[in-house]
Amino acid sequence: MSRFKKKGGKSTPGISTASLPDIIFMLLFFFMVTTVMRETELLVKVASPEAKEVQKLEKKSLVSFIYVGEPVQSKLGTNTRIQLNDAYGSVDVIPEFIAKEREARDEADRKFLITSLKVDRDTKMGIVTDIKQKLRKVGAFKINYSVQQEQEIK
Amino acid sequence: MAAKTPELNASSMADIAFLLLIFFLVTTTMDVDTGIGRKLPPPPDPTQDPPDFKTRNVMNVLINKSDRLLINGRSGNLSTLKEDVKEFMTPHVPDDVNFPEIYQEEIELLGTVYRSKGLISLKNSRGTSYEMYISVQDKLAQAFNELKDDLSLKKFGKKYSDINEDQKKAIGSAIPSRVSEAEPDNIGSK
Predict the structure, then answer these.
(1) Domain with A48 in it: what CATH number?
(2) Is B145–A27 a contact, with Cβ atoms under 8 angstroms apart?
(3) Burial of B9 (0-12, 13-18, 19+ CB in 10 A)
């Protein structure tokens, strides 16, 4: 008979799950930190064009967005519309919109505000030019054309 | 012996954490916003005449309503635009009448360099598609970046993206991105 007889049956010892909460918490914190909640619901379809020389848009808090494209709801037709925050707007409302965006920021940050134009690729330049002229008038000179990084085929 | 404090049952901790984890997983959007940054010029001063440029110093790039290019009066091609711009903006020594004027300037870290008085004038009609406009802007940016890379390699032996801030500034002042967008007029609206 063996000297080293196993105590008990042949049941495998259970894996300790004590570290499971820690692992989960680690993942949780990662996602909490990286999460950006979508503030506005898109009312227009925006398929960004592609380009090679793109820069990352940093300091999200200093960016205000103007969306331009076809309405998502097809009953509103296919005419290009402008979305400012949560509602459809027009070119004439842009000065007001920029003024509100400025008001919402700290005094020191106001001159660093960037206006990001998220424009659908099939939009005609006419409306974009109108927006740019309005932005020039109210002194919002820093703009950013939102584009996707082109995938290089090798 | 002191009485043992009863241990807290932590088995539900994992469940709670899982719940939160799934919530954040669902709400997370990982996309990074990328784009082409530009600075708009201030509105034109009506009391001042627009500055004059010699014809040889200006490269006119026009995009019409059917997305065709016109470069200095001749029809152009998007695939050759970058090379055209690069050739145009490179200072040609000695002075060549077919290219912009050149002048010498002393720039810190670089020494005396030739600079071009060239300027790209970009104009689009109202009917131009946004995609085409971005493509042209992208090509122009590529051309200027490659010129910067070339100068940087020549002066510092490194690419523009690898040099330090002071050197970047020096290169930037030697090759400014001279792209001017013409004042729009209402042509080709349909």
Answers:
(1) 3.30.420.270
(2) no
(3) exposed
